[in-house]
Amino acid sequence: MRLLIVLALVTYCSSMRQQAVAVSGRLMCGNRPAAGVKVKLWDEDDGPDPDDVLDEGFTDENGAFHLQGSERELTNIDPVFKIYHDCDDGILVSQSGCISSVSLMVIEDV
């Protein structure tokens, strides 16, 4: 019985495939580069498997960013790019402590 369980686990683990994703670009706030903006790349999962942060960082002084990450999953990963910003919303973060966020699904570049 123990051998059967071990074989089942080995088969399950080997069926999970390594998948990778990368996003890069430049964020602008109006006509100015959006410097110092927090960006994250997530793999959104369904069910009991929690979402995974694949990579995170900040835009540079030109608003440029590059994030990449990989995950071992049984099914296709569902990458989501999230931007946490305070661009032209009329509310100062220092006064409110609020940051807006935008989530974008990452699609395959063919």
TrEMBL record:
Any one Gene Ontology cellular component term annotated for this protein: extracellular region
Origin: domain of life: Eukaryota
Keyword Coiled coil: no
Claim: Signal is one of the keywords in the record: yes
Main location: secreted
Localization terms from the record: Secreted
Keywords in alphabetical order: Secreted, Signal
InterPro entries registered for this protein in UniProt: Transthyretin-like (IPR001534), Transthyretin-like_sf (IPR038479)
Leader sequence residues: 1-15
Entry's family note: Belongs to the nematode transthyretin-like family.
Official protein name in the record: Transthyretin-like family protein
Taxonomy of the source species: Eukaryota, Metazoa, Ecdysozoa, Nematoda, Chromadorea
